[in-house]
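Sorry, can you check?
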Amino acid sequence: MAQPVDSQAVVRDSGAVLQELIGRLAEARSYLGIEAQEVRKAELDELASKPDLWNDADAARATTTELGRVNADLDAFAGLKSALEDAEVLRDLIAEAQASGDADQSLEAEFSSTVADLERQLSGLELRSLFAGAYDEYDAICEVHAGAGGTDAQDWAEMLLRMYQRWAERRGFSVELDEATEGGEAGLLSATFIVKGRFAYGLMAAERGVHRLVRMSPFDSQHRRQTSFASIDVTPFLEDVSEIEIDEKDLRIDTYRASGAGGQHINKTDSAVRLTHLPSGVVVSCQNERSQHQNKARAMQILANKLAELQRAERQAELDALSGKRTENAWGNQIRSYVMAPYQLVKDLRTNEETGNVDAVLDGDLDAFMEAELRRQRQATS
């Protein structure tokens, strides 16, 4: 027979958690720089209210974007502060009711649920303290490449693309697929996509590296276990990379027919564009736009970002991590293993974060892995 729930003990436990949350919010006030952001908000409000704001469109966009981010931080902090104060009032009401012998179990349940929700919200706010990079708030240009493992690796590359699309969807981010090169039998040889949302780069940079899959191969006639690899590369997406000048003489421009789903969706012309920057060896492709001209313009924008990244890395040693360490897309270099047979396990080899729910991870449940890696990086640099 199940033991009855001690509601008073549950309330006491939630009350202790509430006190801890109040302390954590006080710490958040410091690392979020709330006082400084309040001062900055006043300055930005004044700038945004000027009638000639949009005479300089670039400056206006920069002002409104920064104001939106400052407001988001201040609103998140104020909302949590207010919610914690409301929870304190509810806790006091419950304590008075229990003291008078008139306990209300519905209020006690509401209190416990409220505290648990506040803990989740504060954990999300605390994640922002882990973003210290100059480009962490930006969108992210991401590339997935099939590695060792033949058709299984190409299928794995497509599975990774879907995983990140689902993850972005969970976070309310958007994803633009700029290029996808199909594999010989199945899956993808490569794909380029842009994740758009605040801190997209800071989060996706934690995924940079080689990912290893172990499973019973659906492409093997004897259904044997197969190990395959795919890699993720991540670059911050900057709208303004005007300092990068690209000489067309340094480019090899190839056009080809964009692949599609068939029928009315397949492209009948050679509209896809692949650019090779000969001095650096950087290659980018785009096939998602409607015309060759649009695809070339988009590819040039991505190329400029990648060249800017290389330039920053050369200019500042502390930004070496931005380009990431290039490793062979094969055995011994993986950052994370996804094992589907003979057992179920996803394990990050950098942080030892793991879970047995492989399906959830492949469906985009990646936040715990990303946060663990961000914490590891912060500890390594502190």
Notes: The chain has a mean pLDDT of 87. The longest strand covers residues 225-237.
